Amino acid sequence: MPADSPLATYRIQFTSAFGFDAAAKYVPYLKQLGITHLYASPFLKARPGSTHGYDIVDHGCLNPEFGGEDAFTRLSDALAASDLGLILDFVPNHMGVGGADNGWWLDVLEWGQRSPYAASFDIDWETLPYRHEGGVLLPILGRPYGDALEQGEIVLKYDPAEGSFSAWYYDHRLPIRPHRYSEILRTVVAAAGASSDPPGRELLELADRYPDPREPSRDEAPAFKAAIAAVSGGAEIIARGLSAYQPRPDDRARVLALHRLLERQHYRIAFWRVAGSEINYRRFFDVNDLAGIRVEDQRTFDATHRLVGQLIAERRLHGLRIDHIDGLQDPAQYCRRLQRLTRDKRGPQARPFYVVVEKILSDREAMPKFPGVAGTTGYEWLNVITRVLVDDRGLSVLDDTRTAMTGNSRGFDEILMRAKRRVLDNLLSSEFTVLTRLLGRIAAGHWSTRDYTIDRLRAALELFVLYFPVYRTYVTSAGPSAADRATIRETIRAARTHWFGSDVSILDFLQDALTLDLIGRGRTGYSAPRVRRFAFKVQQFTGPMMAKSLEDTAFYRYARLLAMNEVGGDPAAAGLPVAEFHQRMAGRVKSFPLGMTATATHDTKRGEDARARIMALSEMPEDWRNAVTAWHALNERHIDRSRTERAPSAGHEYLIYQALAGAWPLAGTDDVFSERMQAYAIKAAREGKVETSWLNPDEAYEAALTGFVGAILDRARSPEFIAAFEVFIRRVALLGALNS
What we know:
The strands form five sheets. The chain has a six-stranded parallel β-sheet with strand order 1-2-5-14-15-16, covered by helices on one side. Strands 6-13-12 form a three-stranded antiparallel β-sheet, with no helix packed on it. It has four domains: about 10-95 and about 295-375, Glycosidases (TIM Barrel, Alpha-Beta Barrel), CATH 3.20.20; about 105-285, Maltooligosyl trehalose synthase, domain 2; about 430-540, no CATH class; about 610-740, Arc Repressor Mutant, subunit A. The mean pLDDT is about 95. Helix 17 (about 430-445) packs across helix 18 (about 455-465), helix 19 (about 480-495) packs antiparallel against helix 20 and helix 24 (about 620-635) packs antiparallel against helix 28. By secondary structure, the protein is α/β, with parallel strands linked by helices. Helices cover about 45% and strands about 10% of the residues.
């Protein structure tokens, strides 16, 4: 039997090319290494071809691309034979949507709020205009809606096997609500000229079953579709008649027909850029095809955990790594339910089931005591280990070198604040707008706050978000903890110092809403459900806001020492004295001794060896300063100065030198390495969101950037630089090896 808690884990990334059977072959080797538990990437059914597995479309099914149930059983048996346990990276926060493979999502698109799965997704049904039943914004189009419509990219199709209609945009299926089937049948029969044909008459009779405004219920719809599918010759008529909904440049009536049909659905199709300001479902960060799910809903929890519970009961699963715990509405409630589930499946006498959570902690932030949780996945210890290996005496020199090389003397706090503003304005504006509208409804519902304008409420909430110092608080229906109340109070205090205007009472109102004091004892007139929803949704927002601003933006703008730019880290932190390191580890033994200790994860930006080399620069800061100064002089000729601003920027040039120091192969460089570094340079520049970005790529800048990297790594074009770099890297590699 495997140990109850892991001593050593080995993470395997499953893909269609490396499934359960492939992993089973390595079990004896893992046993020899001393591994106690296989730490598996998500292996429930994900989008076809997924390279990571976090875009799950069915929590109740193993991923068939990995081999399905039989192959999983073989892997499980192999692990059991070697007394190895299995830990699953489980994703309760979101699902993959879009495409045509998530049955829950498709049902919501077809039936709107009447879908039994509507409660499973975190959708703000009240925000989509011109739909009295609400709807979902679908930002899936590659061009503005009108262009896509007129060019015939949105196609109405009929499935003769199901008897159903759907609009398709390439591989995106958009089910048509059955309420419009009668209209479609009449239109296509007329367009096909088949009103007098027996199949045409039969289709028209079916259309007459549900004259507008009557529509088939969920119970009636399957039989209605089956009746359409059963019409002999009906599919041929429908195929001909669908031309009425196929736009042509010379026939505006067809454009209008399809547009009117689409406007009467439970969704609105939109250009992908609209998502930044108008999307109305919670996403994983800013990823449109990862929709947040509501595991606080008991039926959703039960459905998404059925298979996991079965595997636990069968003793085939021995631990869970809970992904993105801070995305959930109530992490503590979730952990209690999970603890109850594992007890029910394993029996009351079983030892506690091993659960760790992906929780990002700032320095000195205490890990919440979630029920049944052994600790975190170890990001904080990764950074503690990094800091103890950094020579604090060299950091001030590295600060000066960064300033001299980049011309940027801004401190990290200022860089982070600028990054937050960029993210709030461009990436997460839609989620923020949802929160602002909800706060506006709360204010409008009470006589004492009804005059607070939406603009001023938005400004107050913006300041709160910008100055919020951690990933999230954990206020529940019972109210905030003392620590969370203090965090909210201190953030409001910081917001006050930047508030302009006489209406400072708005900040008091906001604080009371976030702490739920607005609906506390003695307070009347406010909508308790709305206040709770607002407070909880703000907590779900601040985590993605911090992650996108810190890890995915500021970390690429501030490059004092890239080894410290890791998830949960502080790039501007000091080195950690050995005595303090031991003190922290002793504290951990008392609090979460079974939590994971990570030196790298699938989320780290660099592996241990690369970070260990870069850490070594703190031990030789003057030599580094002299080296990069010389390299800049050698590579000046490769910089593109034909633009208003140089390309690459001074910041990107300095970042590239550090990245090269971490990744330079001791056996020498080749074309593959050059291509990798060029790809990295593009990613780093886009993440930084200054000269270029994922949303608005600057192709000219990126061409100059990759041209620079390619030139300095070309031995024919930059022999002096490469020779100098290789001499320097031999020293760094030795120190890095000792660190590693």
